[in-house]
Structure formats: C-alpha cells, structure tokens
Design goal:
Oligomer: single chain
CATH superfamily of the largest domain: Transferase(Phosphotransferase) domain 1
Radius of gyration: 18 Å
Number of helices: 6
Largest sheet: 4 strands, antiparallel
Shape: globular
Strand order of the largest sheet: 1-2-4-3
CATH architecture of the largest domain: Orthogonal Bundle
CATH topology of the largest domain: Transferase(Phosphotransferase), domain 1
Number of strands: 10
Length: about 230
C-alpha cells in the first residue's frame, strides 16, 4: 500500500499493491458507510497488472474517492482524531464523550450489515472542525442530520474491511499498536468496538482537562511526538 495521492485538491487516489497476500480493499463497506454519510464519497476502482515481477504478477488496485481537505483560514475542514489530540488536546478532552458516542453510532451502523472495518485507529477517523482565527483552538462541527448534535465523523482506509468473520487481519501489522485480534486471523464483529475502547481509554494523551494547555510550543511538541 502507498499513501493517498491528492489530485487537484478534489479527489484522492488510493493504490494497493497485491500479490494475492491481502484481501481486496473493502469498497462495499466503504460505499455502505458513504450512503450513511460516514465515509468519503467512493467513485470507482480499476486494476493495473504490473509486469515487473513476471513470476508473481502484481495487481495494482486503484480506488478513486473524495478528498476531504483540512481546515484553512477561511473554511472548515477535516483532521484525524490523532491530529485533534495533538493539536487541540483540550478540545479533544472536552468533546471526548460526544466523540465516543458518535463512534459507537458508526459501529452500530456497520453492525446492521455485519460489517467490520478492522483498523479503527484515531488516524483513520476524521472529524470536521473550524479552527479559530488565532489558530489556538477549534470548534467541532456537528453532523447536519443529528438531533441532538453529534460530532461529524467520517471513516477512511477500508483496506481490511468486509464481512465480520470472513475478512482477516494481515499477517504483519504495527507491533506497537494494541490490536483486538491476532495476525492472519479473522476480524470479528466485536473487534472494532474493542479497538476503540482500547485507545479511547487513553485518549487524549495527558490529563488535559485539569489545565488549559495554551502554550503552543507544548502543543506542537505533543503533536510531533504523536506523529513520529
């Protein structure tokens, strides 16, 4: 897998290199969450057969989807929950309960079709925010259809997504991440919620609710540490 390439700030192209080791990108799950406005718009996919390895042909899967731009000085935008924690820890702390409720709602929607995502880490969960003019804080935006208001979240990276129990984790994963299932084993319907519970119990890092961290140098240090 290679990082997404942004095309003219409007589209995102995700490319997955497959030699038959990994399951195909979970576009059906992606399109299902798109239909509930919980994922970027998915447009279409196409495959390219590479001749670089004649003894083991490689298929390049291309998936074209909506690009969710980050916030600018003049508009709202999307950041990951990992970046929200790093850049605006007090906002993350103050909004933790509502964000967790919104995540549980996404899990419930997936469960209606017996779908799993498989990688519900903070970097794969985007939230719509508007950064304040001084750049020191942000205002979390609500879903347009929510009553009472819920944070506007969208899920990305459906590499392992599919039907619960039928799709599997890859044989090699980040060993520093706490995972609910074993490498190469099935992803079960409870795993997405278990993963969220694991990192949410420690999120955001530090006891930011005790004091307002307005020192931008400290915020930047936390941000860089998380991104490292």
């Amino acid at each position: 897998m290679v990082p997404e390439k942004h095309l003219e700030g409007l589209l995102a192209l995700k490319v997955i290199y497959s030699g038959g080791v990994f399951e195909p990108y979970g576009k059906e799950v992606h399109k299902y969450l798109e239909s509930t406005d919980m994922a970027p718009k998915y447009f279409f996919s196409f495959n390219v057969h590479s001749a670089s390895l004649p003894l083991e042909p490689v298929i390049e899967e291309h998936h074209l989807m909506e690009y969710l731009p980050p916030p600018s000085d003049h508009s709202q935008g999307w950041i990951s929950l990992r970046d929200l924690e790093g850049r605006f820890p007090k906002v993350a702390s103050d909004s933790k309960a509502s964000i967790e409720a919104a995540l549980c709602n996404i899990i419930d929607v997936l469960g209606e079709k017996n779908y799993v995502h498989g990688d519900m880490r903070p970097n794969n969960l985007l939230i719509l925010v508007e950064v304040t003019p001084d750049g020191k804080s942000c205002i979390i935006q609500s879903r347009p259809d929510s009553n009472p208001p819920h944070p506007y979240l969208k899920v990305i990276d459906f590499d392992w997504a599919g039907i619960a129990g039928a799709v599997e984790y890859p044989p090699h994963r980040n060993p520093d991440v706490e995972w609910p299932g074993e490498p190469g084993m099935p992803i079960f319907e409870t795993h997405d919620r278990e993963m969220i519970d694991m990192w949410m119990s420690k999120w955001p890092a530090g006891n930011v609710s005790v004091a307002d961290r307005t020192d931008q140098r400290r915020d930047r240090a936390v941000y860089n540490k998380i991104r490292a």
